[in-house]
Design goal:
The chain has about 180 residues and is mainly alpha-helical. It has five helices and no strands.
Length: about 180
């Protein structure tokens, strides 16, 4: 009789799991929204855990290198706090150094690229002239294609502008994400 009750409980558990699984399959959108909401609520805590773990490694090294003699009591708590402040200062300094090195270099690269485009267009034009002299039959058939060069150039410039706009917006998005993460921290 006892065995029969165990089998009924196990069977009931399987049936309940199947019903829940069926309901979950029918309501995937709702489950996604609930999971997103829960993740949104837990994200500051998860971010805090990740940052605490990441900061603990260099903080332990700072503590070991600078304050290895201190072992006891209230001084130990002060040493931990001081090590945390030093580590945070090092991290913030590292972020600023990277920003001040990478961002100006990126701006210079974009400027150099923008200044180089006319030279590349001239080189392409010279190459096309040289190819037309070497292969006149190929370029003769290309000239019969009736291409609207102004429209083609306009389309290319629009494509480049949209690409640069997308690059700028993604850069701003990344900066906003970093600022948001720092603010959440």
């Amino acid at each position: 009789m006892e065995q029969r009750k165990k089998e009924i409980k196990v069977f009931s558990g399987y049936v309940a799991l199947l019903i829940i699984f069926y309901w979950a399959l029918q309501n995937l959108k709702l489950l996604g929204e609930v999971a997103s909401g829960i993740l949104g609520l837990l994200s500051p805590f998860l971010l805090g855990l990740v940052l605490a773990f990441m900061i603990n490694v260099p903080m332990s090294q700072v503590e070991r290198l600078l304050f290895s003699k201190v072992k006891q009591g209230k001084r130990r708590a002060f040493v931990r706090m001081l090590s945390l402040v030093i580590t945070l200062a090092l991290v913030v300094g590292l972020i600023f150094v990277v920003l001040f090195l990478v961002v100006p270099e990126l701006a210079r690269s974009i400027t150099v690229l923008g200044n180089s485009i006319p030279g590349y267009l001239d080189q392409a034009s010279k190459w096309a002239m040289q190819m037309s002299a070497e292969y006149p039959e190929l370029f003769g058939s290309l000239s019969q294609l009736q291409l609207d060069w102004n429209s083609l150039l306009s389309t290319a410039m629009t494509f480049i502008q949209q690409g640069m706009s997308g690059l700028l917006s993604s850069t701003v998005g990344i900066a906003a994400g970093v600022f948001s993460g720092v603010f959440s921290f």
